[in-house]
Amino acid sequence: VDDEQYERLKEIKNKRGYTWKGLMLEGAEALDTGEPYRASRDTNERDSSPS
Questions:
Q1: What does the H/E/C string look like for the chain?
Q2: Which segments carry the region annotation Disordered (predicted)?
Q3: From CA 41, how far away is CA 15, in angstroms rounded?
Q4: Which pLDDT score, from 0 to 100, does residue 42 have?
Q5: pTM value > 0.70
Q6: C-alpha dihedral over 26, 18, 38, 28, to 10 degrees?
Q7: pLDDT of amino acid 36
Q8: In angstroms, rounded to a whole number, what is the distance separating the alpha carbons of residues 39 and 41?
Q9: Chain center to CA of 8
Q10: How far is CA 20 from the centre of its chain?
C-alpha cells in the first residue's frame, strides 16, 4: 500500500472509530454481500438496542 492509500484508509478507520481489524472485517462483509457500508445501519442498530 502506498502512502496515499494508507493515509486514506487510516482516515476512514479513525472517522468510524474502527480498529484495523474492524475496518478489514467491514470491507470483507461489503465484498461478500456486494453492498457498500452504510453508516445509517450503525445508527439504527444503536437506536434499537435496549438501554
A1: CCHHHHHHHHHHHHHHCCCHHHHHHHHHHHHHHCCCCCHHHHHHHHHHCCC
A2: 29-51
A3: 16
A4: 53
A5: no
A6: -10
A7: 74
A8: 5
A9: 13
A10: 10
Q: What are the sequence ranges of the domains in the chain?
A: 1-33
Q: Which three cell numbers stand for residue 22?
A: 474492524
d(CA 37, CA 10): 16
d(Cα 12, Cα 1) in Å, to the nearest integer?
A: 15
Q: Which residues of the chain have pLDDT under 70?
A: 37-51
